[in-house]
Amino acid sequence: MNFTETAWKVFNQCIEDYHVSDDVNTLINNPFEKDSLERILYAKNWIDTVQWHLEDIIRDENIDPAEALQLKRTIDASNQKRTDLVEYIDSWFLNKFENITPKPDAKINTETPAWAVDRLSILALKVYHMSLEAHRESASDEHRKNCQAKLDVLLTQKEDLSTSIDQLLADIENGNIKMKVYKQMKMYNDESLNPILYQKGQQK
Q1: H helix or E strand, kind and range, residue 177
Q2: Which Pfam families match (predicted)?
């Protein structure tokens, strides 16, 4: 089983596990061994799955404004955790390929392996939920037909993205691509970088 096949299997197991309770407050129960790649991938998708449903909840037009504000802050915190974990996954790949010497003409990819994995995790969620809609008995035939067409596109995208990720990893391993990562350096959660936060602190 290659990397993306493993990742896709883990992502779908995580999504299925979440939907047993289908509650954003459910605590993660990661079934994989400590320090294993599968455990990291499961943790990544759990964050994405919970955030997917938080994004659904906050779009309720009748939501209480105070609850919406709290949800927005929860989503912001989730985004930070997501970014941190993506960077952790890239560190895992850096360690994996630390003994690889890039070729003199090695190229640099516009996207690191972990950010591509991030897209694959989100895609697993899209496929899961679009499949539900394509088979929802309470929906009209037209709705199910339209959703099946979208699902077909998503599944094609899954195949293409998986191939691209596996090719990227092979190119890094063969020295054809130089793996280079940058921290995202998000500013909105940092009290020293977000002017709204640090100006508020100066006013105290």
Answers
A1: strand 177-178
A2: DUF4254
